[in-house]
């Protein structure tokens, strides 16, 4: 990680863990590095969203907002990603993302990643494997949360 952000690097974490240093350096050329300041909105719920974001440092909050309240969906930290789904199934953002503290993020859209895949197919296969593993783990956690909530609701209805 680059503290000054004048020479940003993608660390070997999360979806990038399977890529060697040279591949991560090359991949960095296919997107853009963004400084994200506290309370800065990175993604807006309901707006078009076509990019993958990899958090290099800092903490982001994924949330949904209504007139009555803000609901925290997830905390995203270093080595984690957001936006993967829209690379494969383009749509609008299902939630907003705001920096909780200063963050360094690498952003790449579908065209960026397709260009990387064309130029470096072996590294791209490792990256795609990392993305699928990350999405699978997230889906597994969501299924566990749903099962827990269903069990709690069943328990509550039994005792009501």
From TrEMBL:
Record protein name field: Cyclic nucleotide-binding domain-containing protein
Ranges of residues in domain Cyclic nucleotide-binding: 15-117
Species the sequence originates in: Haloferula sargassicola
SUPFAM superfamilies: cAMP-binding domain-like (SSF51206)
Gene3D superfamilies: Jelly Rolls
Top-level taxon in the UniProt lineage: Bacteria
CDD domains assigned: CAP_ED
